[in-house]
Amino acid sequence: MLVERLRPHNTSVFGEISRLAVKHDAIDLGQGFPDYDGPAAMLEIARDAISGGLNQYPPSLGQPGLRAAIVAERARRLGGEYDADGEVVVTAGATEALTAAVLGLVERGDEVVLIEPFYDSYVAAVAMTGATVRTVGMVPDGGGFTLDVDELRRAVGPRTRLLVVNSPHNPTGAVLDRRDLALIAELACAGDFLVIADEVYEHLAFDPRQHLSIASLPGMRERTIVVSSAAKTFNVTGWRIGWALGPAELIDAVYAAKQYLSFVAPGPFQPAIAYALTHEQQWVAAERAALHEKYRFMSTALRELGFDVKRSQGGFFVCVDIGSDGTRFCRELPARLGVAAIPVAALAERSHWDTLVRFSYCKQDATLREAVDRLRRA
Ligand code: PMP
Ligand code: GLN
Question: 106 C-alpha to center of ligand 2: Å?
Fold first, then answer.
């Protein structure tokens, strides 16, 4: 029954692997969600909001207090100024912001450039518009992955409407530097196309790497939609609070589509995220350091288990090359060893990602230790 354009995307890998994890009572290092809570005061504010009756439709652009907190926090940290009235819209997670941006800004017949591997919702969103995807592969770089600059130059052309760049990157953990982002910026300005900067892991670039937004480069503010989310910053993937920032003309287009998707993002969580953005940056810094430690622990443990571990510079994930079919490995792993992981093949179109497997390390230390013990039984 499913329409043809969505048939290649009928099952998200995250749903499939999460189901297998539950079925086999596996430790879920697949879907990227923490198994511990964010700041206690933030949770309390959400509880209070519900008992205080904040349970009806909030403003569809987002509560003014949250919009103000989003732009103020960003200005303090990165220096970019956005108007809380007109240059930001609160969405049901970053996923909705991404989809609404694509639906609102891409015409049938346009080309959209995606850097693979990529978060799977990008390609499904493009498929909904009838536009064409051009992929650019990342390439190995000193134990990790980086942009393929030459391929990127070849991929953009007169029909390019939009490019999506994600840094810190899911799944490789690459943090793009100024040189990489400047190249994308140069191509975008020369070719007059738009950029979605997916910055959901913006707070999680590990020392000494620093997050840099492409929107801050010359000529880019006016053509960039910055997408971010509370999910990965405050350990609330289930709250579905994300946002898009950009010049009013672009945000109007995102908002137009968003009105007919969720209409509004969840109400009671908005004051809680406004509070957290404003008052919990120390918690975020401590969490970034803790995740860096978890990454070190997992990469060392996986290496000791014989895996070819790839470098990650931020975010929630570490990739290993298992040298054989990663999809099969991930489908069997929950039943075989009681651990779940994501095949990178599901986040890419080219076959050379087929042997890569992604583990999430955004878990309690005891969870990670137990997962490693189970993997050791192989
Ligand atoms: N972009 C990337 C790169 C992601 O990994 C994710 C999922 N965590 C999202 C967007 C979606 O975020 P959200 O849960 O806020 O929809
Ligand atoms: N972004 C998360 C990940 O990459 C999960 C998102 C989802 O389940 N759709 O694991």
Answer: 23
